[in-house]
Design a protein that fits this description.
- The protein is α+β, with helices and mostly antiparallel strands.
- Helix content is 35%, strand content 18%.
- The protein has four helices and five strands.
- A five-stranded antiparallel β-sheet has the order 4-3-2-1-5.
- Strand 3 and strand 4 form a beta hairpin.
- The longest helix has 33 residues.
- 4% of the residues are buried.
């Protein structure tokens, strides 16, 4: 056999080895993160729910999802263990390190549209009526009287 014919197989086996190795490292890091949980730590479940750890058992965790509301979850359901400041920022909306020098952005666009000079309304002298092809009110009433009204269930579709 020639080495050139074996080269694709060698590359394929090497790629599979590297992929399984990185997946194994991710699994070990996740297991270590779950084992290092302590009561009082903020977490995010794999479903996206934020909660506080109350008790840690071998395969389960008691979480406080709201004040006075507790739920038991499997350790494998913990997606991330969050730092205290990150958990408080996400759940409570608090920012501990607000910088006073940062500009304040308004919640609406009114400051962007306001100008120093008042805007004058358009001239009222151009009051000519524009015909958009609509019927006058009298013509519309005549057309309505000519056609019989449809009731529920009737249509023009065939």
């Amino acid at each position: 056999m020639n080495i050139v014919t074996l080269l694709p197989f060698i590359v394929l086996i090497g790629a599979m080895f590297l992929m399984t190795r990185s997946a194994k490292k991710k699994q070990q890091a996740a297991a270590q993160m779950r084992n290092e949980m302590q009561p009082g730590t903020g977490i995010r479940t794999i479903g996206g729910m934020y909660a506080t750890v109350k008790e840690v058992h071998d395969d389960a965790v008691l979480l406080e999802v709201a004040p006075g509301v507790h739920a038991v979850y499997a350790k494998n359901a913990i997606g991330a263990v969050l730092a205290d400041d990150e958990y408080n920022r996400i759940v409570h909306g608090t920012e501990d390190n607000l910088n006073e020098d940062t500009p304040v952005v308004p919640d609406d666009a009114s400051s962007l549209t306001e100008s120093a000079e008042p805007v004058e309304p358009a001239d009222a002298s151009d009051d000519s009526r524009i015909d958009l092809g609509k019927k006058d009110a009298a013509e519309a009433e005549d057309a309505d009287d000519a056609k019989p009204k449809k009731t529920d269930g009737e249509s023009d579709a065939k």
